[in-house]
Specification:
Layout: H1 2-24, E1 53-60, E2 65-73, E3 78-80, E4 86-87, H2 91-101, E5 108-111, H3 117-120, E6 137-142, E7 148-157, E8 164-168, E9 175-179, E10 204-215, E11 220-232, E12 235-238, E13 246-247, H4 249-260, E14 266-269, H5 274-282, H6 289-297, E15 300-302, E16 308-310, E17 314-319, E18 323-333, H7 337-341, E19 355-364, H8 391-424, E20 427-432, H9 433-439, H10 443-446, E21 447-448
Antiparallel strand pairs: 1-2, 1-6, 2-3, 3-4, 5-9, 6-7, 7-8, 8-9, 10-11, 10-17, 11-12, 13-21, 14-20, 15-16, 17-18, 18-19, 19-20
Length: about 450
């Protein structure tokens, strides 16, 4: 009997321990866990063009804060809200990103334990209660009515599985290994048209370097020099060029290339209506105090004649299409990262001083099109068959063609200037220090003594 009681006792203890083990054991991977393996994360999202908003949120460990980036379509244009709604050239990129999201599958179930999220890097970067480490990149795509098309957190790469990342849907604990191939970027310059002027160097026929500086304390202008460089055939010539000197062809090509490839690294919005204010000043009107402060903070001032000047001079670039680009170099722009690309009150006063404000406008110069042809004296040829035209008729037709072409070029040039000014009107631009150095040339650098071969 004693042995029977002992046996029953041990059996009872074993059962209790088994029950306790079952209750306290961590989640086990059961067959049910694999039921959705191989399915798409967002099967209803099938058309990449349906996406009109992309938001990417990353976690910045240096500042211990979430860093959002968004591109959206407001019904008229694509914009970047984090950068003052600057126009985005992002429709195709967004479509490629959306296409990469479509079809992402739950290739391999990994865990449903919250405790594993940090190690796999799938903690929501917006989670204010979770660990500061192990946060992933959250990507959300929405449609035109604000409906969520896709929303997931991309974590670390899966060890020994190239192309696979740990992926989790926000609000869900389950983590999968999934093949992720997305054309994704949160870099401001990847979503905009960085080629600011959109001009080809072979079209440039005149460059004017206005080398002056403003004394901000006295508002006096130190006009050091003004150099006009003009294209003459395949060569460039300069005004007031001393005998025995030539334009340095290498430096000239470097300057033209810098103009053609000029890219912006940041933007700042001008106060509303400042472009209209500039027009009023040039016509003898006044500018508001707030507009004047905005201009001065970026290094721009008006002289007594209502002319806008910049504290580091300007460059005028004229094309054979009649377009004159006026680049005014302003104050130093501080900061890095978003502080540089979008600006902030703190960034205006601190950070690396490696960039420069740029104020751009465009004008139309009819003389750049060449001498205006005279219209034909007689257009009677229009009512004759070509076979009956006289030499005079042919000459009149040629005159008419030349005159019509000049008028088309004139109209297209004016239209181009209008489009450019609409594009430039609302923005101060920021260019790199390297671009500034390449554009800010002096007579001494451009005019040299030719070397003897």
């Amino acid at each position: 009997m004693l042995e029977t009681k002992k046996t029953a006792y041990f059996i009872g203890v074993a059962v209790v321990l088994l029950i306790l083990a079952f209750i306290t054991a961590p989640d086990k991977i059961t067959s049910e866990a694999f039921l959705d393996q191989g399915e798409e994360f967002f099967p209803d999202f099938t058309d990449p063009n349906e996406a009109t908003t992309l938001e990417v949120i990353e976690y910045d460990e240096s500042t211990a804060s979430a860093k959002p980036f968004k591109v959206t379509f407001d019904g008229k244009v694509w914009t970047i809200p984090s950068h003052h709604d600057y126009p985005a050239d992002g429709k195709d990129r967004l479509a490629r990103t959306a296409a990469g999201v479509i079809g992402i599958k739950k290739d391999d179930f990994r865990t449903s334990s919250v405790a594993d999220h940090e190690a796999l890097g799938v903690i929501d970067p917006m989670d204010e209660t979770a660990s500061l480490e192990g946060r992933g990149q959250r990507i959300t795509l929405k449609g035109s009515n604000g409906n969520v098309l896709a929303d997931f957190i991309i974590g670390k790469e899966v060890p020994n599985r190239p192309g696979l990342r740990f992926v989790r849907v926000p609000g869900q604990n389950r983590v999968y290994a999934a093949r992720v191939d997305i054309d994704l970027s949160t870099r401001f310059e990847d979503w905009i048209e960085t080629n600011l002027l959109d001009v080809k160097k072979y079209k440039i026929k005149r460059v004017v370097i206005k080398d002056y500086r403003i004394n901000e304390r006295t508002r006096s202008v130190d006009r050091r020099d003004e150099l006009t460089l003009s294209k003459d055939g395949d060569k460039w010539k300069a005004d007031r060029m001393p005998k025995g000197k030539v334009v340095d062809s290498t430096k000239m090509q470097e300057l033209l290339k810098a103009v053609e490839e000029l890219k912006i690294v940041g933007v700042r919005p001008k106060p509303e209506g400042i472009s209209a204010s500039l027009t009023r000043v040039s016509e003898g009107g006044n500018i508001s105090t707030s507009d004047a402060y905005s201009l001065q903070s970026k290094g721009y001032f008006f002289n007594r004649d209502g002319q806008l000047l910049s504290n580091e001079g300007e460059l005028q670039v004229s094309t054979k299409e009649g377009v004159v680009y006026i680049l005014r170099f302003g104050e130093i722009a501080y900061g890095t990262g978003d502080a540089l690309t979008a600006g902030s009150d703190e960034a205006e006063q601190s950070g690396p001083a490696e960039n420069r404000y740029l104020f751009v406008t465009a004008e139309f110069d009819e003389s750049l099109l060449g001498k205006k042809p005279s219209p034909p004296k007689d257009k009677s040829y229009e009512n004759k068959p070509d076979s009956t035209w006289t030499d005079e008729d042919r000459a009149n037709r040629m005159a008419q063609d030349a005159y019509a072409k000049w008028e088309r070029d004139n109209e297209n040039g004016r239209k181009r200037v209008e489009e450019l000014n609409q594009r430039f009107a609302d923005w101060y631009y920021v260019i790199s220090a390297d671009s500034y150095r390449k554009l800010r040339k002096t007579r001494g650098e451009m005019i040299v003594t030719p070397t003897k071969s």
